[in-house]
Amino acid sequence: MLEAAMKKAEVLVEALPYIKDFYGKRVLVKYGGAAMQDCDLKEKIMQDIVLMKYVGMHPIVVHGGGPEINAMLEQLGIVSTFIDGQRVTDLKTMEIVEMVLGGKVNKQIVAGLHASGGKAIGISGKDGMLIKARPLQGQAEMGFTGEVESINPMIIETLIENGYIPVIAPIGFDDDFNSYNINADLVAAAIAVAMKADKLVLLTDVPGLLRDPRAPESLISVVRVSELQDYMNRGIINGGMLPKIRCCIEAVTGGVGRTHIIDGRVPHSILLEVFTKEGIGTMFVNE
Question: Is the pTM here over 0.70, yes or no?
Answer without folding.
Answer: yes
